Amino acid sequence: MCLDACHNFLDFRKLAKSRLPAPIFHYIDGAADEEQTYRRYTEAYGDCDLVPNVLAGVESVDMSVEVMGQKLDMPVYCAPTALQRLFHWQGERAVAKAASTHGTMFGVSSLATVTVEEIAKLAPGPKMFQFYFHKDRGLNDALLERAKAAGFNVMALTVDTITGGNRERDLRTGFTSPPKLTPASVMSFALHPMWAWNFYTKEKFDMPHLSGHVDQGTNLAVSVGNYFSTMLDQSMNWKDAEALCAKWGGQFALKGIMSVEDAKRAVDIGCTGIMVSNHGGRQLDGSRSPFDQLAEIVDAVGDKLDVVCEGGIQRGTHILKALSVGAKACSGGRLYLYALAAAGEAGVAKALGNLKIEIERDMKLMGVTKLDQLSRDNIRFHSRAA
Fold first, then answer.
1. Helix 316-325 × helix 334-366 angle, to 10°
2. CATH architecture assigned to 3-367
3. φ, ψ (nearest 5 deg) of residue 120
4. Which residues are catalytic?
5. For the segment 218-274, what is each residue's pLDDT rounded down to a tens digit?
6. Domain edges within the chain
């Protein structure tokens, strides 16, 4: 299978699986416990139907949106994800360039493998910095100041990783960052020599925003779950979030909001956006999917800040359904990570291009020329047994 044959999300997943050692692939692909929430992430969109209109004069459509002060050419952006040079040697550089090519925003993680300074030079478009609140307050200050100095437009504080989720696939494969060979994984690494060649012959793997502050993840192999549980500050509370929002002094969002109560508190502390998200199903298994929870959150705070639906996006129709409910935009990680693993920058560019083509076609089939013409009038939810 080659990149030209990747027409959808599952095609990219298949190609990524063929190119990655098993521990790396399953880190992207896996989730928590029985992975019920992970499966529900996408299934939820299937419980909602679109109701199209016709004869609407749709020769030209505008799919641009403004979210958290950023003008995007398409209503979906690349959510921040960690460790990207594990998946492809180009890492965040590839995502930054591809997102800029398509005029959309991309997020850079605190646990990124390329610096915010380099990313800022590569991509002049909208950029989000995703903040993990560490026990080391000096590290927290350094992360904020570097992102601000690099000209990042939006700060997103992740609030659903107060401890690591139970990612059993990682336990079975022995996944760590940086990778280490185990009896269970050595054969898989050996069977993917191109990945190994790139990983070991390119620049040394590093998480440069953490360098000089912590060894875990860069010089000391550790699972992501253990990192969250030991390095992040479990005492983080609403006062900390409010202080960080004030210190940033610009567009500020909470990533990982799932309840109406928390969405209202986000408004109270000065947030300009929230990501309705459960971290790709990788944290609390058995929680609702973002799309299932979207309507009540939009109804509560959608007129006070921008609500982003994050997770499970595989099709342009999924995006139109979320916008019909009231989301300002959508975002996701796996929607571009499989493509990154499959073919680097070219893969991410193709994945975003596929979505752009789908959104344009689906808008025309829905009979809308602008995204603000979508509403709950053009969707119907399946009835569910009590």
1. 70
2. Alpha-Beta Barrel (3.20)
3. -60, -35
4. 279
5. 655 677 778 888 889 999 999 999 999 999 999 999 999 999 999 999 999 999 999
6. 3-367
